[in-house]
Amino acid sequence: MTGRIDVHQHMIPEPYARWLFSHGVDAAVAVAEAGHALGELSADGVTLLANSHGVYLGDPAFDPLMRVLDEHAAIVFVHPAELPGPAIDGIPPFAADFLLDTTRAAFSLVKHDVPRRFPRIRFILSHAGGFVPYAAHRLAITVYGETGRDPDQALEDFSGFYFDTALSAGPAALPSLLAFARPGHVLYGSDWPFAPEPAVAYFNTWADDPAINHDNARALLKERSHA
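The structure assignment produced for this chain is given below.
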């Protein structure tokens, strides 16, 4: 994967960010890929799946990778994968399972104190963070029950994630997300080309805002360049 980035990095126009996609299946390979992409290839960030064979981001097994990402002040885009369990007939995974997968990853990251132990990483949760904005207090109380951490501190960590709006900027969800996330932490997402253009256009109806569409992303990349 890093070799592919190496071939194409000089073809990418300057305004666009350079990104590495890593499955994170092999910890040593993922660490090497991330270090090479963020160092030698000057990538801006990486995409990580929410879980790898049932092991979720936040698990201590990912600490070596988090350490490298923190050293480079990386932006990490968290995208759901298949849930570690059988699919349910008649319910496509993208309808609900993907949202749960992202929520599980966010919970695991906060439970294991990753945002505070590796504070230079900026995490972007896809699809408005799954269920995070709407279940944050429930998640925070659970973190307290399992770790004894202050639930208000856990809430700060949940709201400190960045969130994209892919297929999630509906008239009920978007106001809730904007009320929960820190100012400037909501970024445009479309899920195109995996989502058909009519679906993208449908959700664009409610997310037509310069801050969401580009200003917040520019500010995030600028912040990373000065980190």
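Interim note for the steering committee: Confidence is low (pLDDT under 50) at residues 1-15. Residues 86 and 93 are 10 Å apart (CA to CA).
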